[in-house]
Amino acid sequence: MIIAKARAVDGPDQQFRSAEIKRRDLDTNDVLIEIKYAGICHSDIHTAHGEWGPVNYPLVPGHEIAGIVTDVGTGVSNYKVGDRVGVGCMVDSCGECDNCRKGEEQYCLKGNIPTYAGVDKYGEPTQGGYSTHIVVVEDFIVRIPDNIALDAAAPLLCAGITTYSPLHHWGAGPGKKVAVVGMGGLGHMAVKIAHAMGAEVTVLSQSLSKKEDGLQFGADHYFATSEPETFEKLAGTFDLMINTVSANIDINAYFSLLTLDGTLVNVGAPAEPLAVNVFSLIGHRRSFAGSMIGGIRETQEMLDFCAEHDIAPNIEVISADQIDEAYKRVLASDVKYRFVIDISTM
Ligand code: NAP
Ligand code: ZN
């Protein structure tokens, strides 16, 4: 049994506190990782606040994990002590269903095992990356390329793959007009990745306050959704839209910006249902889709793509004592563009 230091929360309205959590002894195919950095995803906040449904507290969030291998089980073949590795939103799946066999473990028909707020195959609650160590089966670990720093690598494990996967799946590339709605953690990665894929990229943000950053990340155009003319000007423009907004928006207004056969993919996961007016879809054979993170193979592909194209998130590194403050700032859309916890401060 390994005792890890962690930051845990005891209820929806509670502040984070220091905690000690148990990590299992290494099974044959397990890897022990000393966590160096953990990103703060808006999903951590939705979960910690109980917005997506009941949660078993105490909860240690964190599914953007970057660290170093410090021990391996006797059957581990792909990793050794000292390797730079990452763990994202899931730590296991059945491995046998059609979706797992296709490498789409996130859509495991028996349900993937989330990195935190889940129950592992030993019946123990899973606890995430706001902690000094984690034990994960080697099939759910990815390798961090040498030219990506560990602090910058962390957000790629969720924000990176969650935007790379739909951009790749729906064919973002040369000749495609892609809009990114909301430029927070996910949104700013979507801009960088879509640009590197060769698409013409437009940001739709609440205001123009981050316009210079957006253009620097690779956006070709930047509009404020608070200005009604934006919707008139851009009507029927986009082949693909990636909605990263964490709150409920008037989604029908955004459908009107799609071309014939255009697709709006929701990756944002607000707790309340979105009200869809089907007429805004049927008029131009538009599609409304969703997408959840990406498979393990695709996550490695995304990391290698980022390494090759020199893509990294813009991060603000914080200490473990600043998690509550960071949550407040994320909720106020005051994040540039991902908070990353320096685990050595734990
Ligand atoms: P984030 O950093 O807070 O970014 C969300 C952005 O949405 C904000 O920066 C803001 O962008 C915009 N926004 C926020 N409130 C808004 C409002 N009321 N109206 C309009 N725009 C608003 O969050 P994130 O970490 O990127 O996560 C975004 C969402 O994706 C969350 O719901 C999260 O749970 C979800 N998520 C889903 C997956 C998946 O697998 N599908 C994975 C990770 C996260 P501007 O300031 O530019 O307007
Ligand atoms: Zn996430």
Any chance you could write out the topology, listing elements then pairs?
Elements: E1 2-8, E2 17-23, E3 30-39, H1 42-48, E4 65-72, E5 84-87, E6 90-92, H2 98-101, E7 113-114, E8 133-137, E9 142-143, H3 150-153, H4 159-169, E10 177-181, H5 185-197, E11 200-205, H6 211-217, E12 221-224, H7 229-233, E13 238-243, H8 251-255, E14 258-266, H9 279-282, E15 287-290, H10 296-308, E16 315-318, H11 323-331, E17 338-342
The protein binds NADP nicotinamide-adenine-dinucleotide phosphate and zinc ion.
Folded structure, characterized:
With 346 residues, this protein is of the alpha/beta class. The chain has two domains: 2-143 and 314-345, Quinone Oxidoreductase, Chain A, domain 1 (Alpha-Beta Complex), CATH 3.90.180; 159-290, Rossmann fold (3-Layer(aba) Sandwich), CATH 3.40.50.720. It is 24% helix and 26% strand. It is built from eleven helices and 17 strands. The strands form four sheets. Strands 3, 4, 5, 8, 9, 16 and 17 form a seven-stranded mixed β-sheet that branches. Helix 4 crosses helix 5 and helix 4 packs across helix 10 (296-308). It is globular, with a radius of gyration of 20 Å. NADP nicotinamide-adenine-dinucleotide phosphate binds at residues 41-43, 46, 158-159, 162, 182-187, 205-206, 244-247, 249, 267-270, 291-293, 330, 333, 335. Its EC number is 1.-.-.-. Keywords: Metal-binding, Oxidoreductase, Zinc.
